[in-house]
Write a structure and sequence with these properties.
Layout: H1 5-11, H2 26-37, E1 48-52, H3 56-65, H4 70-74, E2 77-84, H5 86-94, H6 104-127, E3 131-135, H7 142-149, E4 155-164, H8 178-181, H9 192-209, H10 218-225, H11 234-240
Antiparallel strand pairs: 1-2, 2-4, 3-4
Helix pairs in contact: 2-6, 3-7
Length: 246
């Protein structure tokens, strides 16, 4: 096995939701974004825009949109990652070309590339001694987020990211066994024995982390998570923004 500092850092990842009040230098913020930009980009179209939100009144609106997650308003640095097809549309228009819009593949590329870039940003942040957490809750109220950030058509906020110096150590959450995730040659059915062992492992983790208040297994978590409302309004919102119309 290879053992190096990069892999060690990645394996130590935790979602951090409590931060000290220490500020993050703007030069470091820009360096993190540059690290994000170094990520792979499908056909090199570079379809991500990141919005750094610092004004308290805007943070408050985004906190509301996220389901009132308090750390959205209080973290030292809050970034919003947007799938941005508008910029390339403007580039084409400046060259006298009308860029076709609305293709589902365009939306997929923009979403995938934005997620890849964001993970680079988070990894770079962790390498600099910061901690963070993704905020997918911004998709709870996409219209409010668009209004707050003045997003034009062809631009969609996919998620936010809280960053700062950690004021907690929640512990490593155990992942699925590698053999469940890594299949050989063809897709393999889930082995029930592996799932049962992982259920016990995750349940023990929650029991320890919550001092006995919670002992949810992975199977119970999946049942609960996938049987609740899954933002059915998103398709119509995306289409109003000019994405995924064909």
């Amino acid at each position: 096995m290879v053992n190096n500092s990069v892999i060690e850092l990645m394996l130590k990842h935790q979602s951090i939701r409590k931060f000290t009040q220490q500020t993050i230098p703007q030069a470091l913020v820009e360096q993190l974004i540059q690290a994000g930009q170094a990520a792979s980009s499908s056909s090199f179209v570079q379809v991500t825009t990141v919005i750094q939100v610092s004004r308290p009144e805007l943070r408050e609106k985004l906190q509301t949109a996220s389901g009132n997650q308090a750390y959205v308003g209080s973290c030292p640095l809050f970034l919003v990652f947007c799938a941005d097809l508008k910029r390339n549309q403007q580039i084409c228009a400046a060259r006298g070309v009308d860029m076709p819009t609305g293709f589902t593949e365009q939306a997929l590329i923009a979403s995938i590339d934005t997620a890849i870039m964001a993970q680079n940003v988070l990894l770079a942040a962790e390498s600099a001694g910061l901690g963070g957490v993704y905020i997918g809750g911004l998709r709870n109220q996409p219209e409010l987020v668009s209004e707050t950030l003045n997003l034009p058509d062809q631009v969609v906020a996919l998620f936010g990211m809280c960053l700062g110096y950690a004021a907690q150590d929640p512990g490593l959450k155990p992942r699925l066994p590698t053999k469940v995730v890594l299949h050989q040659e063809q897709y393999q059915p889930l082995a029930q024995t592996e799932l049962e062992q992982y259920d016990q492992l995750l349940s023990a983790y929650y029991t320890q982390r919550t001092m006995g208040k919670l002992n949810t297994s992975f199977s119970e978590h999946i049942e609960k998570t996938l049987n609740k409302e899954a933002r059915p309004y998103l398709l119509s919102y995306l289409q109003r923004q000019g994405l995924m119309t064909r």
